[in-house]
Specification:
Structural class: alpha/beta
CATH class of the largest domain: Alpha Beta
Shape: globular
Bound molecules: ligand NA7
Helix content: 25-40%
Distance between the termini: 32 Å
CATH topology of the largest domain: FAD/NAD(P)-binding domain
Number of strands: 21
């Protein structure tokens, strides 16, 4: 048994060394708290450490996808592209870890396999698969929303004689796909980013698509120097400004409704956005794109026409055309040359809706109509999102109740920050918070700052236990659902709703009311002396 801090009780255990965990360690230690982190990976970076597949890139603009807690850090770091590549985001994470001496406060290669609350001592005991034990007053889950991989168990997969790779755990040393016959299963963001890059080196690429997805051109490029200079002239002011926007990124909405413009004006606006690219893409132009089906259909039809123009084979174009969900209700993807990739002679699209996979054999994939010989099979099949990483920690709260049990009908949280029955546990960007719908780093900073302030308050008032009240939690859960139901999001089969995991309760898992309303609510609660929480000495 490998006990950190010699069995001594510390103030806080932080799980995860991604952007959430790193900032939590930084913030708590800066306040004089003894905080220690555990991370399953070998280094910092979280999702950016694991997802090192070819083509991996951020879909929030680099100048906004960064910490803002220290102006000096903002000033010194330079991004090379409009949308940073995975290696560049990872270099940034590493720079932050180095600059603030964060690595020393993490135990790496340590995966949590149990978190148990003890009511008498008011402490969490955390254990890892590698045999560490640690005890602390507070437990902070900075486990990310997309860190528990979903790996479908296809019949015969064990027999496959080639290499099997997962975008969510790509080999850190890279993998040479040159000259290989590669199959990619999955056309979410990871598939859509990697497919054009793999196609450039593979002898042949076969894409196995279950659901056609909307994707829009990122139009990645170097950052325009004038734009960067304008932001850098008052970077913190820019940050404050974007935090007033729903997605905590640069506002791109040009009108409330798609029907505020004439047909010609609307078409020109979509075309202009298509040419300029950028986060959120076409659906963000009109505020009613994800609430009004007719407005959504305008945007969707524009993209459908683009697919028909770009993809030369009409049958392939039709297979690539999404028709079963409103645009943006599955997470919108940003790509570089995705649709055009299907014009390459070395790329085949297999439409699994027409010809489903029947089995994998030693040599490749067999669908209901053909066999596709492969050397490498790549799974880009996504995650058990939002709740998966928290459930995997095997958390037991008051009276030993397991989080899985408390969430048997779907996640129930107070503001996505706390869970009734699980005192002194905080979930950074947890289900019920804006999380994946907004700029994640902004959401992380807001959560960590709020948690640090609450812990300060507890220290000042002598409280040692904090728990969300059941009634307050139920109100929040209802509010999250109510807001989701005013939108088209519940109409899609998506990981937002838990649809991609068999048996997962269906429930829209993020706050759709926007970052500012959410941050304001958190602020009001703190100012009110933490209404909704039970604090005890
Ligand atoms: P996603 O968006 O969940 O995409 C997973 C893809 O894998 C999607 O196209 C799925 O089809 C497909 N899939 C999943 N299981 C299967 C099986 N059994 N057979 C065939 N196809 C399957 O995950 P990503 O990693 O691409 O992106 C996740 C987020 O990371 C992304 O939104 C960004 O925020 C970053 P389906 O649509 O379910 O029919």
């Amino acid at each position: 048994m490998n006990s950190i801090s010699d069995g001594k009780t510390i103030d806080a255990i932080v799980v995860g060394a991604g952007f959430g965990g790193m900032y939590a360690i930084y913030r708590l230690r800066a306040r004089g708290l003894e905080a220690r982190g555990f991370e399953a990976a070998a280094d910092v970076g979280g999702t950016w450490w694991w997802n090192c597949y070819p083509g991996a890139r951020c879909d929030v603009e680099s100048l906004d996808y960064c910490y803002a807690f220290d102006e000096a850090l903002l000033d010194e770091w330079r991004w090379s592209e409009r949308f940073a590549t995975q290696p560049e985001v990872l270099r940034y994470a590493s720079h932050v870890a180095e600059r603030y001496g964060l690595r020393d406060h993490f135990t790496f290669n340590a995966r949590i396999d149990g978190c148990v609350w003890d009511e008498d001592s008011r402490l969490w005991t955390v254990t890892t698969e590698e045999g560490h034990t640690a005890r602390a007053r507070f437990l902070i889950a900075a486990t990310g929303c997309l860190s528990k991989p979903h790996r479908p168990d296809l019949p015969g997969l064990d027999e496959f004689a080639g290499d099997v790779l997962f975008t969510q755990a790509w080999p850190q040393e890279g993998f040479d796909l040159a000259g290989k016959r590669v199959g990619v299963i999955g056309t979410g963001s990871s598939g859509i980013q990697s497919i054009p890059v793999i196609a450039q080196v593979a002898a042949h690429l076969t894409v196995f698509q279950r659901t056609a997805n909307f994707t829009l051109p990122a139009v990645n490029r170097p950052i325009f120097p004038e734009y960067e200079a304008e932001i850098r002239a008052d970077y913190l002011g820019h940050r404050r400004k974007i935090l007033q926007n729903k997605a905590a990124t640069v506002k791109q909405t040009i009108a409330e409704s798609a029907f505020d413009l004439s047909d010609e004006e609307r078409e020109a606006a979509y075309e202009d956005k298509w040419q300029r690219g950028g986060a959120g893409g076409i659906p963000v132009l009109f505020a009613d794109s994800v609430t009004n089906p007719a407005s959504n259909e305008q945007a969707a039809n524009f993209v459908r026409r683009k697919i028909a123009e770009i993809v030369q084979d009409p049958e392939v174009a039709e297979s690539l055309t999404p028709r079963d969900h409103p645009i943006a209700t599955k997470r919108i993807c940003l790509d570089t040359d995705y649709y055009a990739t299907f014009n390459r002679p070395n790329v085949t699209l297999v439409d699994l809706k027409k010809t489903p996979i029947e089995r994998v054999s030693a040599t490749g994939i067999h669908t209901s109509s053909a066999e596709y010989p492969l050397d490498v099979l790549v799974f880009a099949t996504g995650f058990d999102a939002m709740t998966g990483p928290l459930r995997a920690m095997k958390i037991r709260g008051v009276e030993g109740v397991a989080l899985e049990h408390a969430w048997a009908d779907g996640p129930r949280t107070w503001l996505g920050l706390m869970v009734a029955g699980f005192p002194n546990l905080f979930t950074i960007t947890g289900p019920g918070s804006p999380s994946v719908i907004v700029n994640m780093i902004a959401a992380i900073e807001q959560h960590v700052d709020w948690i640090a302030r609450l812990i300060d308050h507890m220290r000042e008032t002598g409280a040692t236990r904090v728990e969300a009240q059941d009634a307050a939690q139920e109100e929040w859960v209802a509010e999250v659902r109510r807001v989701a139901e005013t939108t088209l999001y519940p109409l899609a089969n998506s990981w937002y709703n838990g649809d991609n995991i068999a048996g997962k309760p269906r429930m829209f898992m993020a706050w759709l009311g926007g970052y500012p309303t959410y941050a304001e609510r958190c602020e009001e609660i703190a100012a009110s002396g933490y209404a909704g929480l039970e604090l005890a000495a």
